[in-house]
Amino acid sequence: MAQAAERYTNTAILLHWLVAILIICGFCLGVTMVNIPGLTPTKLKYFSWHKWIGVTVLGLACLRLLWRLSHPAPPHPAGMSDWNIKAANAMHVLLYILIFAVPVSGYFYSLAAGVPVVYLGLFPLPVLIERNDELKPILKLVHYCLNVTLLAAVILHVLGALKHHFIDQDGIFKRMMPGK
Amino acid sequence: MQLFSSVSRSLPRRLQLGMAVAAACIALPALAAVLKVDAAKSNVGIVFKQLNVPVDAKFKKFNAAIDYDAAKPEASKATVDIDVASFDLGDPEYNKEVAKKEWFNAAQFPKASFVSTGMKAGANGRLDVTGRLTIKGKTMDASFPLTVKKEGSIQVFEGSLPIKRLAFNIGEGEWKDTSMVADEVVIKFRVVAAQ
Q: Which of A173, B77, B103, B142 has the fewest Cβ atoms nearer than 10 Å?
């Protein structure tokens, strides 16, 4: 059996871990920044960094989707039950949806709050909607709910990977680990 | 009055009356007209930059009094009084922060104001306005171009005045850092008035 077919491509692996790290950093920043009372320079910095991370994740999400559509994932390990396969597929679809939905909801929330995003402090990004005091609390809630969903999905994703590695011992982790 | 009475003693009554009316008609338009400002259609706001991101904010409560004569702009006057506590960033928590001592100190300095000291006709139908701007207890000279447009029976005065916030001590302590919030802040206003 060709070994290449049993692993993800190096590009897919790189993108996966890059997005994972960025999501973790973005999430931690997000939770920290909203809990800073009042208005401090640190809080403003965290907000900016959080948004830059979000925009980066969105960009990488586009790359990942394009890559996956042109480079199919390796087949599931032999012996995986039907429900197992269905659950895994559903989880991955959900994660793909979320890596788009979460940053997009955040982006529009920021715009509705009247704060455009200047990526890395250098590149003003398109102001797709004007400040909107009615939409702002709605988008805030949407961003919050999507993030809670993402947190749950990531936890399940990690638990699933660990289960396959330690319990099923079907070598699933090796598919997504860098190296040969 | 003296001049007219000495000249007109020799003239018939009707002509005297006509001359008086004519004099009044010539004199009246030279007086600047106090305009009725439509506060609902007017707005006063600022644009500032935080971490290079431009943000708009507005003052919801202000009074503008404009005494304007299109024929003699030099005789015109404008005063704008702004209720500092009406500053709106779109978030009540942030609005409260900005009213504090480090920023506007709205408790001690509830009003910001601009009083014009001179208006001159400038290029392209604009007015060059000079005046004194008072914010947080500090008064500085300010000058800026004002455009005046007539739209039917209303007149629209628009202008933008860039200021340096640190000159007015707005943003003290750790907020003096202009890489966080830029020093230059542009005050933008649009005052709509009817005759």
A: A173
